[in-house]
Design brief:
It is a single chain. The protein has about 400 residues and is an all-alpha fold. The chain is built from 15 helices and 2 strands. The protein has a two-stranded antiparallel ribbon with strand order 1-2. Helix 13 crosses helix 15. The protein is globular. The relative contact order is 0.15.
């Protein structure tokens, strides 16, 4: 996920991580795909939301999380890589430490806000759902002293609150990878692969709660692979793939072949696909980032990269069909604004998703409510993105 500073600039060339600073221009692709991922993540976190039946995750091994983390790596290479290049490793590490501090307290604040709200909602609707139990927070309230310490030390990580801890783990690795890249880029790449193998073969992970053997749902040792893939592309550690329509065709075939293995309406009815999932599930499992998730994401990313055109030219509204161009420009601006403010939007969407789920509980889950509740969620995170952008512009410092 893109929790780095919301910079959308891309270097004119991808020299090396230690190259001299280069002039940068805005690239709409990064913000566009971050924004799309944020809308999908909101949909996916609203409890019992029928719309989740039609998000990309239902038809393939990878989902919006991969997009989020990959773009996060690219944005981090822009925001943090520039500091490493201009001011050296120590100052770059200090910049990472500052961002880690921000994300850590964002995680703590998000947990407290949601936990308190779930207690309030359970009291307001005593005959309805147990909203505290819905997030499995009763263990926290049953033993608050022990679990408050676990919350602060990240040894207590409930499943709904597991993405930011994963990102914290990856952030800590950035200075290490940059230092290894100074030795040689291949050393950094090899280290990333070895960490991924450690998660998938040796079982490296962190404990998620002190009373059981449950581990972090998003294992940073596994997920760092896709993060540093995006980082490596943007930092110039590895070159971008060639634009070849034959490769595009291969990517389309990979995505198409994946559908029956991923879409429940098919694999639950056909024994072959269900047996594959049962026997080879470790290849697509989410916690340690199974290898087929990586392959599937790279295929979808290549397709998207080819379709959007150079510098995202195909998503920029053209002069033809002026009415539709105006409509699309408004939609595109909203999507990109959400992508630019992804940390604030992510935190806001995780909180809003619970409230939108309560609205479904009170008004019912009909086709009409599905439309207006999801639309309300979209409108709220768009408003949040614009509001955060306005505050970040520090308008009070501008001359009247």
């Amino acid at each position: 996920m893109t929790l780095a500073d919301p910079m959308s600039a891309m270097p004119h060339s991808t020299a090396t991580a230690t190259a001299a600073p280069q002039s940068r221009i805005r690239d709409p692709r990064l913000d566009f795909f971050r924004g799309i991922a944020m809308f999908i993540i909101l949909i996916a976190h609203i409890p019992n939301n029928w719309v989740t039946l039609w998000i990309p995750a239902r038809f393939g091994f990878s989902d919006a999380t991969e997009t989020f983390v990959f773009c996060s790596g690219m944005a981090s290479a822009i925001a943090f890589g520039a500091v490493f290049r201009r001011q050296g490793w120590l100052m770059g590490t200090a910049r990472i430490a500052y961002r880690t501090w921000q994300v850590y307290w964002a995680h703590i604040a998000l947990f407290i806000a949601i936990a308190a709200t779930m207690v309030l909602l359970t009291r307001i609707f005593p005959e309805g759902r147990d909203y505290v139990g819905q997030l499995n927070l009763h263990p926290f309230f049953n033993r608050p002293q022990e679990n408050l310490f676990g919350l602060l030390t990240l040894t207590y990580v409930p499943n709904y609150f597991d993405i930011l801890p994963m990102y914290l783990g990856i952030l800590v690795l950035i200075p290490v990878m940059v230092a290894l890249a100074h030795v040689h880029v291949s050393v950094a790449i090899a280290a990333s692969i070895l960490l991924w193998l450690g998660a998938n073969v040796l079982g490296w992970n962190f404990p998620a709660e002190p009373w059981s053997e449950r581990e972090w749902f998003f294992n940073p040792f596994g997920w760092q692979l896709i993060f540093f893939t995006g980082f490596a592309f943007m930092a110039g550690w590895i070159p971008p793939p060639p634009k070849d329509w034959r490769l595009f065709g291969i990517a389309v075939v990979i995505v198409a072949v994946t559908v029956p293995f991923a879409w429940s309406k098919i694999y639950r009815e056909m024994a072959f696909f269900l047996e594959f999932r049962n026997e080879w599930g470790f290849l697509i499992q989410k916690t340690d980032f199974g290898i087929l998730r990586y392959v599937h994401f790279l295929a979808t990313a290549y397709i998207a990269w080819m379709l959007v055109g150079p510098k995202g030219a195909n998503i920029i509204p053209s002069g033809s069909g002026r009415f539709f161009a105006v409509i699309w420009s408004v939609i595109l601006a909203a999507i990109m604004k959400v992508g630019q403010q992804s940390l604030a939007v992510f935190i806001g969407s995780m909180y809003l998703a619970r409230l939108l789920g309560v609205m479904f509980d009170q008004f019912g889950r009909s086709y009409t409510s599905m439309v207006w509740v999801n639309a309300l969620g979209f409108a709220l995170i768009i408003a949040l993105a614009y509001g955060v952008g306005w505050f970040k512009s520090q308008p009070w410092k501008k001359r009247a």
